[in-house]
Each structure stands twice: as structure tokens, then as C-alpha cells.
Amino acid sequence: MALLIFGTLFLPACLFFIWYFHIPRTFPSLPIIPIYVPLLGLWSSMGQDEIYERWFRAPLEAHGAVIVWHAGRWSILVSRPEWLTDMFRNENLYVKAGSQVKNPHSVIATLVGDNIINSHQNWKLYTSIMKPGLQKKVFDTTSLLRQSNKLDDVLISKGKGSIQVNDDVQKWAVDVMGENFLALDFESLGNPNVVRLESLQSTIKATLFNPIYFTFPDLDRFSWLLSSRKHGYRIMREFDDRLYTRTMEMVRRTSKSDMVSHMLADAYLTKKITEKQFRDNLKITFLTAHENAQQLVNSMFWQLGTKLDVQSRVRDEIVQLSRVHPAPSQEIINTLPYLTSVVLELLRVFPPVSQLINRVAMQPAVLGGDLPIPKGTFVGWNAWLVHSNTAIWGADAREFRPERWGSTVEEMQARFRRETVRGTYIPFNAHRRKCLGQGFALLQLKILLFVLLGRVRWVVDPEYRLKLTPVGAPCFILSVPC
Ligand code: HEM
């Protein structure tokens, strides 16, 4: 009888688990990160930085790559710059394959769909439509100055003492994204009423980065059983519908502009793209253009609130400029060397996109001529570890030291380009698929610092302990003595 129960119940289950969790035999011989590591967030208070430090740093620095369980499969995570450069350069061999390919049934795939960031096949089509709206030669700083002043007003209105900034930073980031890319005024910052499209973002982040579903997206298939997954799909659909409706109303009311939303709507209405492609690209613009800025600004508040010498040195530079240019243009703000070095160093020490595994080998390949990659294997990168590797960035790699970038803006820009091409500085990725919003993101942070530092000083609350979230954002408390 016992044998029968074992044979009918346990044996199939055991065989299933062996099949599901086995590492393909064709994988190269590399260190393996234990499968429980991505789940640590469930029972420990460890931040992502501590997890990287404890489990990833030593094997990655010694071998240049590791085998890791990610989003329901074993994948290869790379940190050796020459291998990364090979991966980024050969985008037709290591092709982009986001969750819409990896786990098309999942909650995250419902959210992002097929879009300009994760698509291989349709990338050229999407880029031809959206690029002019994402990469303007010169961005007008008027709206950035106004939004940054508004964030400052809201923070100051909270009074002196300990305050938490993350919620207001998210609202600011959503409003800035809306105004500069979608021609939508969300006006969530300082609004006593809830702006649903903004407030949904916190729910979306919590739903997506739940360690158990992030690690095992196959569980999303059981939404009929798991109410949190049912809720997840509902939230993603609500976001999709609200953004679509709001954008279409705006498009009907206004004439064409150089905004991404107008360009996408035009392509949709003239049938160059489908309604789904329109919706997916609207959503990714909304997400990527606010989320990364939000994380970077959180890191900035923390870092400059602990390195007060850096805070006052940038302030001196900014105050001097503001006497001549109280509302600087992009060209003027870009002339400040210390500000430039602070922004580049923030992106090095706190890359908002700290890790991504979203490429798949189309053929059997040999990465950098050294590492065999079987066909169909997912490969990715970890910017946090590349940027903090002492063999790459020197003995002080883990310190925040803006001076390392040089003393003139030209010198800094040259180093920025050089390190990006070499695969040693990848906050925006590199080569053909590098970030199209990079220019705007740098400007956005510079203008925010220009406004903030001219009006407030802050220190990090001594009670606060820095912890990077799964997507790399420190959330914290600080005090703002005006
Ligand atoms: C601090 C802010 C930002 C950071 C750190 C950042 C980072 C990145 C990274 C790492 C990638 C490559 C993703 C991958 O390999 O799959 C990327 C791609 C992209 N980013 Fe950003 N991003 C930022 C802001 C923005 C903004 C403001 C926009 C404007 C909408 C934007 C639009 C894009 C687009 C369209 C791509 C896809 C490029 C392509 O594949 O051709 N990003 N970004």
C-alpha cells in the first residue's frame, strides 16, 4: 500500500521537481548561486546589496559569470567587462527577450508586453516611432525647474525634523515623466486627492517584486487559486486601461506634438502598430521614465545626506551659477563640472537598474571567445557588482568619490563614454540597445540638485539604515533644516 501511494503521489512529484530544477547539462562549468538566495527577502531583512556582497561578489569576481535561478529558470549572470561588451555588441546573437518571451502568461508580462526595451523583432519599428520624442537635441528646462521647486516646497512644508521622502519623490517622478513624455499633467505631487495612476505604481512595484512570484513566475498560472495573483492581473489591467483612456482623451483634445504619446497614438491610428503595441509602449514609457529617476533621487538624498562635504561643495558650485543664471538651460547646467561628477558617481555607486537578465542566445555561442553559452540560454548582467569591483575601479571602488571622474566636463564625458564602451560603466547599458532616455535622466537630476541645493540642506536621520530594495532603491528618513 505504502509503495502504491509513493508510486502514484510522491514519485511523480519528485520527478517533476527534478525536471523543473535541474541545471541543463550543456551549461558551462561555473559557480552556482543557491536557489534559495533570490528568496531571502521572504524571511530576512537583508537588502539586495548585502545579498550581492555575500553570495555573488566572490564567485563573480573570480569567474566573471555565475549560474543563477532567475524568473523560473537557470540563467547565466555575467560581470566580466569583455564578456559584457561581447553580449551588448552582438545583439542579434544575444537577443533581447523580456518577460513577454520568457513567461508570456505572467503578471509582469501582462504589465509590460512587447515594447521598445524588451523587443527584438519589433524594436526597429518602435524606435522609428518613439526615438524623436525620447531623444530631443535640447530639452527645455522650464518644466523641470517648476516641478523641482514644487518637490522642494512639499518637502519644506513638512517642517524640520525627520521626514520620509520616497512617496513625494515618486509623485515628482511621475509628474515629470507625464509632462515631458506623455503630454499628461498628472499633478500628483502636493495633491490632497489620490491620483490613481500614480498611487497604482506602489501597488504594482509591491506585486511585481514579491520574491516568491518574481522567482517562480510559473505560480502566476494558478491565479484561479491564488488571490494575490488574481489581484496582480487586475491591477495591471487597471493601469493599462486608465493610461490608454487618459492618453486617448488627451490626443483627441490636443494637436500633434513632439511628445512620445502623440507619436505612438499617430502610429496606432494610422495602423502602423496595433492597439496592444500602443498600450505596451505607453506603459513602458510611463514605468521606465519615472521608476529609475525615483530610485536615483532616493540614492542621491541618502548619499548627499551622509557625505555633507560633497553636498556643500555642489551647493557652492550651484549657488555661484544661480547668481548669473537663476533658471539655467540644459547647455548652461551641463557646464558645471562638480555637479556632473556627482551625478555620474551616483549612477556608478547606485545604478537604478542594478541587474537584468533579459537576453537569450539564439545559437550556441562562445561569449568573449571564452565562455560557451548553449542555444536558448538566458544571459544577463549585474551593474552593481561591475561598478564596485576593485579590479576595475581601484581600491576605493566602493567609496563615493566624484573626484575620480576628473576635473573638467570634457574629461568626464570622455571617461563616461570610454567606460561605457568597455563595459565597465553600464548604468544605461551600452552599444545599440543603450538607454534612449539617458540625456533626459542626467538633466532631470542636475536640475533637481540645482533647485534643492539652492534652498535646503539635509542630513540622513541617524536612525536610518541603508538597505537596497530588490530593484536597488534605498528608502529612508531624513531631516531638512532649511
Ligand atoms: C536614471 C534614469 C534611467 C536609467 C538608470 C535607465 C537605465 C536603462 C537601462 C539599463 C536600459 C537598458 C535595458 C536593457 O538592457 O534591457 C535602458 C533602456 C531604455 N531606456 Fe532608460 N533609464 C533611465 C531613464 C530613462 C528615461 C527617462 C527614459 C525615457 C522614456 C528611458 C527610456 C529607455 C528606453 C526607450 C530604453 C530602450 C532602449 C533600446 O533598447 O533601444 N530611460 N534604460
From TrEMBL:
Listed transmembrane segments: none
Gene Ontology biological process terms in this record: mycotoxin biosynthetic process
Entry keywords, A to Z: Heme, Iron, Metal-binding, Oxidoreductase
Cofactor(s) demanded: heme
Residues given in the record as heme binding sites: C435
Domain of life according to the entry: Eukaryota
SUPFAM superfamilies: Cytochrome P450 (SSF48264)
Signal peptide span: none
InterPro entries: Cyt_P450 (IPR001128), Cyt_P450_E_grp-IV (IPR002403), Cyt_P450_sf (IPR036396), Cytochrome_P450_monoxygenase (IPR050121)
GO molecular function: heme binding; iron ion binding; monooxygenase activity; oxidoreductase activity, acting on paired donors, with incorporation or reduction of molecular oxygen
Similarity field: Belongs to the cytochrome P450 family.
Name of the molecule in the record: Cytochrome P450
Lineage: Eukaryota, Fungi, Dikarya, Ascomycota, Pezizomycotina
